[in-house]
Specification:
Chain A: This is Biotin-dependent carboxyltransferase. The complex is a heterodimer of chains A (289) and B (205). Chain A is mainly β and 289 residues long. Chain A is built from three helices and 20 strands. Helix content of chain A is 8%, strand content 29%. The chains are: A mainly beta (289), B alpha+beta (205).
């Protein structure tokens, strides 16, 4: 192993490698995967001078700690957290130089769920179908980080970061998700469609990279027959038999047999990735563009 | 044919049968290959084809409504042969559903030429059609927490082969040693929509 690598000192609750994902293989049953909060991942890459497709770490609530073997520039963004190098506080949301052998500790999220850690040169694990992302549904890509694991880093490009610090949206106190109804809203009673877009939901603790699960009024079906499996998209709001809507996130299955009542606007999904369990959700119906 | 908008950049095109879905899928692939359809994903399923990543879905919906979909082209590709031991733990249950002996389940199943209607559930998992409707079987009342890789299984009108160990509720009738999915191989998936498949019985050890 060359010096361009880091070792994992504290893997945290669930830390994965993520990039832009592997779209284009849905017809083979391959989820797209990729960073859930895409703008945050793009920003930390920009802060260290990486191209947008460079692979970063995505943490979940508890942060992580790593020890680079050579001096690297890192940036931490997404969920705000305390960041230290060898125990000394350093900036969040800005490029930070981490000397070879120093301990970079990404603390637990102060708010939000997922912090992103970019390393100059990017994480250089072997790509699978064109992406280095960990896909938790189908097990493609590198496994989630474990204590003691060593991950390779790529060579830094000569790009210079064009930003030193950048504003990032605060994790949502209330998650407002704009949805276009359909394709299967007619499988629900009119009362259920009304409840979906007017009543209060909240983020369930059972949420993960596959879907944002909700708690709230169960949605009653008008058609109770079985829906033949059909292709589903990122942001689809699928309603399983318990009636509680699930918003499909990056590791979602590519086909499904439960009706999709609506689809969340792509621009609203990064906020969904940062909503902690218990966050109130409102689904607001908008028209198709 | 009905084209339902899905969010702002996708369409779910619904037809009346699996055969129509096959024809539509072939036609959409043809249009993408000739450059008249620009789309990120074309995902066939039981009665639908999903077009995801369209710049102007409403325009594509109009074009589809005004155009003819020719019948599906003949299945020209080679047949993939999967050696199978008909030794699954649900063989007797399937035999009971079919009203035949376990031996006959193997004979009937191995006599059919299947084709991959669509993929899903897991990378490389194909939903194979070909069995006549009288051989439909329900899923198991209680799904297994772990179905081994290579398990050949039935549910509803479909046959499937588990590409890797996973939970599953299908009725297991046999086992194959063929690797269905290997991301280091090109193509990674042995089965993709349209692939013809035959199960070739081999002696159980």
């Amino acid at each position: 192993m060359t010096d361009r690598a880091f070792s994992v000192v504290r893997a945290g609750a669930l830390t994965t490698v993520q990039d832009l994902g592997r779209a284009g293989h849905a017809h083979l049953g391959v989820p797209r995967s990729g960073a859930l909060d895409g703008p945050a991942a793009a920003l930390v890459n920009r802060l260290v001078g990486n191209a947008p497709e460079a692979a970063v770490l995505e943490t979940t609530l508890g942060g992580c700690a790593v020890r680079p073997r050579s001096t690297v520039t890192v940036a931490v963004g997404g969920a705000p957290c305390r960041v230290t190098v060898n125990g000394r506080p350093v900036a969040w949301g800005a490029p930070v130089r981490v000397p070879a052998g120093a301990l970079l500790d990404v603390g637990a999220a102060d708010s939000g769920v997922r912090s992103y850690v970019a390393f100059s040169g990017g994480i250089a694990v072997e790509p699978v179908l064109g992406s280095r992302s960990t896909d938790l549904l189908s097990g493609l890509g590198p496994p989630p980080l474990t204590d003691g694991a060593v991950l390779p880093l790529g060579r830094p490009t000569r790009l210079h970061a064009r930003v030193d610090v950048a504003p990032q949206p605060a994790p949502p106190a209330e998650l407002v998700l704009r949805v276009t109804l359909g394709p299967r809203d007619d499988w629900f009673t009119p009362a259920a469609v009304r409840a979906f877009t007017t009543r209060a939901y909240s983020v369930s603790a059972a949420s993960n990279r596959i879907g944002l699960r909700t708690e709230g009024p169960a949605l009653e079906r008008a058609l109770t027959s079985e829906l033949p499996s059909e292709g589903v998209v990122l942001g689809a709001v699928q309603v399983p038999p318990d009636g509680r809507p699930v918003v499909f996130l990056a590791d979602h299955p590519t086909t499904g047999g439960y009706p999709v009542i609506a689809v969340v606007r792509a621009a609203d999904l990064p906020a969904a990735a940062q909503a902690v369990p218990g966050t109130p959700i409102r689904f607001v119906a908008v028209r198709h563009r | 044919m009905r084209a339902l908008p899905v969010g702002d950049d996708a369409l779910l095109v619904e037809v009346n049968s699996g055969e129509e879905a096959r024809a539509l899928h072939a036609e959409l692939l043809r249009r993408r290959a000739e450059g008249s359809l620009s789309v990120r994903e074309i995902v066939p399923a039981a009665r639908t084809v999903l077009l995801d990543g369209l710049a102007a879905p409403s325009r594509v919906a109009c074009e589809l409504a005004m155009s003819e979909v020719p019948p599906a082209p003949p299945r020209a590709r080679d047949v993939v042969e999967l050696p199978v031991r008909y030794d699954g733990p649900d063989l007797a249950d399937v035999a009971a559903h079919w009203g035949v002996s376990a031996h006959d389940v193997a004979r009937i199943h191995a006599d059919i030429e299947f084709s991959v209607a669509f993929c899903g559930f897991a990378p490389g998992f194909g939903y194979l059609t070909g069995l006549p409707p009288r051989y439909d079987v329900p899923r198991r009342a209680t799904p297994r927490t772990a179905v081994p890789a290579g398990a050949v299984a039935l549910a509803g009108p479909y046959t499937g082969v588990y590409p890797r160990s996973s939970p599953g509720g299908w009725q297991l009738i046999g086992t194959t040693d063929t690797v269905l999915w290997d991301h280091t191989r090109v193509p990674a998936a042995l089965l993709s929509p349209g692939t013809r498949v035959r199960f070739v019985p081999v002696g159980s050890s």
